[in-house]
Amino acid sequence: MSRDDPSTRDGPRLFCDLTQSWSEVGGGVRTYLLHKRRHILDSTPHRHLMIIPGAEDSVVEEGRSVTVTIRSPRVPGSPNYRLLLRNGAVRRALDQFRPDLIECQDAYNLPWSAIRHRRRFAATALVAAYMTDFPTVYGERPLSRLAGRTLAGFAARLGYAYAGALYRRFDAVFALSENGGATKLRSLGVPNVDVVPLGVEVGEFGPTKRSASLRRKLGLADGQPLIVYAGRLDGEKKPDVVVEAFRKLPPALGARLALLGEGPLKAEIAELGDPRIVMPGYVRSRSELATWLASAEIYASGMADETFGISIIEAQASGLPVVGVKAGAMIDRVPASVGRLGPVGDADAMAANILSVWSGDRAAIAAEARDHALQFGWERSMEALFGRVYPAALALRTASAPEGGAVAANLASA
To answer: The pTM is what?
Structure first.
């Protein structure tokens, strides 16, 4: 066995994140990975390797952090993301750095590169993060509109069978919420499924960020609600359901709708010519996003397949009730005390729920929502990851590797 084999290392370890879900302008996976890197560098003796898609091939080593960028084409219709399809380049990077543990945030070609690497280096632990409920998001829901429920249901079952076969090969798997993935994975026979919620910088958000000048620019007086949505304007996120619900509200309410984001549905919504709907685009500044949220009265989302719901927590941290759909992580994130959930794709129900929240005790809901959001700090996420998931994966791999080795280091005390 080579002295460079991970199973022989008793000191600091190298943790690798291998992902296709990387965007230079934001996104939940990018935020998660940057917080993880900060935690590793600031709070542990370990090293961190990221293998991500980009415009050009490059390797950047800075102290205990390494970033390998692999040239990848852009995703059609989603210009901020790229398709990392060069498995050979991925395997060469893994062979070069030989991480002790590889975490994959995707379910397509990249996990198989990690699995193939482990065949050569048996002590390498594999962890999977279930970031997207892909059989439903990219299979069942689109096909149900195009080809009917029978074919859509078949596609979903095929997708979940694939997910079960894939994730049963990993040493540990975690979802971001119970209803956003953990329950489904366990039903597929995937062992060692944990729940690791993402974190939110809740300190950046709060009711004190409210801006009277922003509301004046929108033509809003006291007593007129601003409803806000933040996220991609595409079919997956379903902002069109929010727009349809908004347009069903009584005109006398004097409401305005702000859609914060970019995407293919933006032009379609703009063609409605509704002056009450504003679309300022992607809000890059966290401070500006906090201002928009705090200046609103209600947060609305039609997204049926949230696995965690960062935007939901940010809205709640801003003191907003949430009107959403009874599916996915929304079930975990929006108890009745802080919002209303309705059927998926039902604009009439969403409009009724908006009116219900508006006529309720919004001050009490705002206080409860803020308290609910405060539990989702990044410290909690990192404690779960480095205190439970990674040590369990490393210990299992050490026990399973043909030539054994020392039991995984106690990361929780690192």
So the answer is: 0.81
